User: What shape does this take?
Amino acid sequence: MALLGYGESNNIKWQCGGSLISENFVLTAAHCIFSKYGNVSQIKLGIHQITLVTSFVQTFGVKKTHLHPKYSPLQNYHDIALIELDRPANIHTGVKPACLYTVKHLPSNSFIGTGWGAIELYGNIHDVLQKVNLSYVEHDACAEYYKLQNRLPNGLIEDWQMCADGGGARADTCQGDSGGPLQFHRVGDENNLHTIVGITSFGIKCAIVPAVYTRVSYYVPWIESIVWPN
Assistant: This one.
């Protein structure tokens, strides 16, 4: 899990999350590249508590950002971006790249969301990394909640987007979790890697209406063209 910071190095504001997918690249939401404090300027890996600095924490500058070419800040489509780190990450037990899920059909209806976001609607960012168990919400049911959104002129697009909620529990991702992963753990994986199916994108009301995630499988060819061009 990556923590994204904005502004000057002596006054960094933490606002979004992301996922390390190679030693040089972090996957996040396109809208997380920008903030009222300026563009993303710092990345932390291996961090659990924002206010606690340990030997596991690695801090990076931003070499380059790659927005999906079809992303527009005026709409909620193609909300995906890559951040190229200013040097390779040191891969070890506490910092490992996640895998990408490559097909539309989901392996399960149960996932995990992670981030430092608020734990209640309109709350503040949390100091300690949180995780939440989430359940897939069928496209047609979720689309009903979002059919009148100005930033979704064509409604939710199933190939590009997916929804999840607490599955009956009052649980959700919330403000500050944007860019972080919707993921599952591969049972029996000796490397203890997680696989990302979605990127936290947007919602209406935390834990009341299902949140929307960018569906990673659709964007794998674009990701590969930048991260692994050869």
Observations:
- The first strand starts at residue 2 and ends at 6.
- The chain has a mean pLDDT of 94.
